[in-house]
């Protein structure tokens, strides 16, 4: 039981650390992964945390103040 609680606490810390990441750094990491998998024609955008559009939210950054979204379509440079 203690190991399960410890695991959940550790996972919570990891996700908080991920949210503290800079948005440009996160965007670069996600783009690298997508490009490595051969994904073509997508857009990654940094939006406000209260975003409620059609794009899929693929991460959060800047301490949860912003989100990174993914949209299929023409890739923006």
Structural account:
This protein has 77 residues and is an alpha+beta fold. Helix content is 42%, strand content 26%. Strands 1-3-2 form a three-stranded antiparallel β-sheet, with helices on one face. Strand 2 and strand 3 form a beta hairpin. The protein is flat, with a radius of gyration of 15 Å. The mean pLDDT is 80.
Shape: flat
**Separation, N- and C-terminal Cα atoms:** 49 Å
Mean of residue pLDDT values: 80
Along the chain, the helix and strand elements come as: HHEEE
**Radius of gyration over C-alpha positions, nearest whole angstrom:** 15 Å
Biggest β-sheet description: 3 strands, antiparallel
**Strand adjacency order, main sheet:** 1-3-2
Given the helix and strand composition, which structural class is it? alpha+beta
Percent range of helical residues: 40-55%
β-sheet strand percentage: 25-35%
Number of helices: 2
Low-confidence runs of at least 5 consecutive residues: none
Q: How many domain regions?
A: 1
Count of DSSP E strands? 3
Keywords:
single chain, alpha+beta, 3-stranded antiparallel sheet
Structure described in brief:
By secondary structure, the chain is of the alpha+beta class. The chain has helices at 2-19, 23-36; strands at residues 42-48, 56-61, 66-72.
Please outline the helices and strands.
Blueprint: H1 2-19, H2 23-36, E1 42-48, E2 56-61, E3 66-72
Antiparallel strand pairs: 1-3, 2-3
């Amino acid at each position: 039981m203690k190991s399960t609680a410890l695991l959940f606490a550790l996972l919570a810390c990891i996700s908080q650390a991920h949210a503290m990441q800079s948005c440009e750094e996160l965007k670069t990491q996600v783009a690298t992964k997508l490009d490595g998998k051969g994904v073509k024609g997508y857009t990654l955008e940094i939006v406000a945390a209260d975003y409620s559009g059609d794009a899929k939210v693929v991460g959060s950054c800047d301490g949860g103040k912003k989100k990174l979204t993914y949209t299929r379509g023409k890739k923006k440079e």
